[in-house]
Amino acid sequence: MRINSFSVIHSLVFSTGPSLWLGMSIVTVQLGQCGNQIGFEVFDALFRDSHCSQGLCSKRENEAYQASCKERFFREEENGVPVARAVLVDMEPKVINQTLSRAARSGRWTYGQHACFCQRQGSGNNWAYGYSVHGPKHEESIMNLIQKEVEKCDSLSGFFIIMSMAGGTGSGLGAFVTQKLQDQYPSSLKMNQIIWPYGTGEVILQNYNSILTLSHLYRSSDALLIHENDAVHKICARRMNIKQISFRDLNQVLAHQLGSVFQPTYSEDGSFHYRRNPLGDLMEHLVPHPEFKMLSVRNIPQMSENSLAYSTFTWAGLLKHLRQMLISSAKMEEGIDWQVQPPSSGLPPLGKMSAHKDPHFNTSIANLVILRGKDVQSANVEGFKDPALYTSWLEPLHAFSTWKTQRAFGKYEKSAALVSNSQLLVKPLDVIVGKAWNMFASKTQFQKEEQMGVLAWALDVAMSLLAWDNSAACIPAIPLLTTMFITLEYLSSVLFSNMLHMSLSHCSLPMSPHLAVHPSFVLHLLTKYGFLSRHVIFDD
Amino acid sequence: MTQSVVVQVGQCGNQIGCCFWDLALREHAAVNQKGIYDDALSSFFRNVDTRVGGDGSSISKGRISSLKARAVLIDMEEGVVNEILQGPLRDVFDSKQLITDISGSGNNWAVGHKVFGSLYREQILEKLRKSAEQCDCLQCFFVIHSMGGGTGSGLGTFLLKVLEDEFPDVYRFVTAVYPSSEDDVITSPYNSMLAMKELNERADCVLPIDNQSLFDIISKIDLVTSGKLGAAVKPKSLVTTNMGTVTKCPKKPFDAMNNIVANLLLSLTSSARFEGSLNMDLNEISMNLVPFPQLHYLVSSLTPLYTLADVNIPPRRLDQMFSDAFSKNHQLIQADPRHSLYLACALIVRGNVQISDLRRNIERLKPALHFVSWNQEGWKTSLCSVPPVGHSHSLLALANNTCVKPTFMELRERFMRLYRKKAHLHHYLQVDGMEECAFAEAVSSLSALIQEYDELDATKSMPVLDVPRLSVAL
């Protein structure tokens, strides 16, 4: 069982590193236009915060914070300018060039000189190109670059992979790279930062690309940290009062949220001792079960730094809002539905919880609240420990954690971030699967290919996996899951092989399209492909 | 960065091509202040050291020495190409990348396709291969020709077959000028119909244009510029203008119309050449906008047609730009996309426009548009930071919409009127290799296409079919 694997790995790595007082490093992989644009803003936000003069703490404290942040995300070069521990990958050169020059122009930090890989022709918004064509073709070069960056870390916590779901490179190549990272660095952790596209469309194929990305990443990644463009856009519009919102604005809000999660926090040892394994700690607290790994971030206060001068906050107020944002699935600080309340307390018997549950109530598997700033020790987080907020199979003791740090984030005297593993993303996922299914199913009317039903099933499986009602109780049976994953992988292979040929008529499957999870069918797959095999061979 | 090669065929194709290269040079001149040959320039131009004799070897970086267009000029009569080569753009074209003949195709598709096709096949192949070799990474062939004539339509479509065989991985974008109803060429329906069959089968993407629409747009602009607002319009910003152009000679009659098409092609490739916050490459156009291989006809519209001299563009003007893109007066063929069914729509925005403006306008305009049931949010968007010459921002809308159907039906109608009487048919049948069944095949190809659009239109009024999702049997 993998449940305890994170703590095992965590302690293994934790104890076998060399001088670890500075902590472990994270190697960031930026993929595609989205990944590279966001990556820049993240490094910039981290750097600016760590060099922020305020901080509201002692000089020694600040220096420890800076050093810890630096070790995590940057490395030193000869001329003293910090170099981001990042690898930039894109299938066309414009964005990488732009990103590199922006970093160089800032003068504060820079990217490694040879840390990028790009080609000439993009992926054409085709997931299959990213995954099956560019991936294998450039595997060696990309993995070499990553290897070089890893070698420059004293001790590696893991990988932070930034990508979008809607495009071709970020999504397809991102899924491929994550898989290769799992093969090559099995004991390092991988967190994927995924951008969920706008609902009203940025790319016509975004639903297909999203489904394929999620289903693949679900098996190779350790945690998926998801940001929705629509949500971040609303924050910019309503909370930050930006009139003409650009992608840069969106990315900066996002970077701010990520910064408030990833910047150093105190370990249990107390002040001046920052947590050493950022990814390990996050996963240990937030991903207690490998089948539930979709995380979301909320932060408070959500306002631009300029408006801060006119506002004061109390921890009580901030935490109250944050808690309500969690349980009412609100994505921002405004328009929170205060009517939604957790079901009446007291652990109800298994299976009966859904009857009393408010349909808008958001059940969590695990939550992590990160508090930074003045008087942080006085902040009362009892509201988050209510068992009614959580599923029945995990005690709040294990499901909820708080990290408190005196050192403030940026100019925010008090700030709180909530990283949550909950049902928040189920509805958006349902919407995407519905749309992908719609687009796909109606093509069957035109193309009259029955085998397409197989693909539809894959989509539905993806959905079912991710939408299990937590209150329905038991930890899902592992064998069944494995079966579904194998099938899903096989079916996804078929889909992307078709996308590769850009024609839905080249689909040949060795089995009947009318499917249920029939035992013989399962046996057939298990023998043919091997248990959790990654190399799928299909008949022509 | 990828490169594209423009192949201009026939009188129409070459005249449009000429305007295109002129505008491309102006656009790059406005952006490229330092005179360095960069990736953006390399997509359409080669940098050639003319001091070295002969063809001139290509220089990949450094200062611009001499720019040569990545173009192949084909015409079966010499007049137009000669004029280009004697004109101010003569240095831009590589003298070896031409194919000309003397007599012309006589407005006969069969002559263009069969006779000149077989005669010049080897030469065409050689020139194309040469252009391809000069590219690091060739992505796309832009073919420009008219449908109604003989060379453009016949040889132009023959060319498509060559491209498909020799360069199967390279996209084929065709800009095809369809004859208006008052076309002066009597056999244009035959030529267009025969060409349509080839376009159906061999082009990746077709941008149909017709003269009447271009003419209407010109009239509208003339109305504005000669009226009250005339003084306030920035002359350089007219989408039809070739002001600032290299040539000092008086404007040729079709220049204004050709400039519109030139603008279209440049905007199409702008996001691939220049940077922006949401890039769109050429391969994404085909991938996103063509849901079924047959339905690859994209109706285009360019806005704004002119910019007022007012520097501060309030959001209302910006929004007007988006609204105009969907009005039937701005489309480059006679079509009304608003009242037909959208399969997909791409918005390529250039200049100082941000994602919130784009979002706001999509939300605003979407309710009035009909999208096919399985692609309700069928938008593909792109933001390029570099505006076209003379504008601060512009929008190119590409719609895969059933509103192309009337154009095709009318074409079929005009064809049938001639064909029923077998009028002028003998000119075609006289040509070696041309048989009457070719006509029948062409008609059935077009009819099948119209049929597909009909089927889609039928779904328009139907309620959204909620095909039940399969459930997992545990």
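Residues 246-250 of chain B have pLDDT under 50 and may be disordered.
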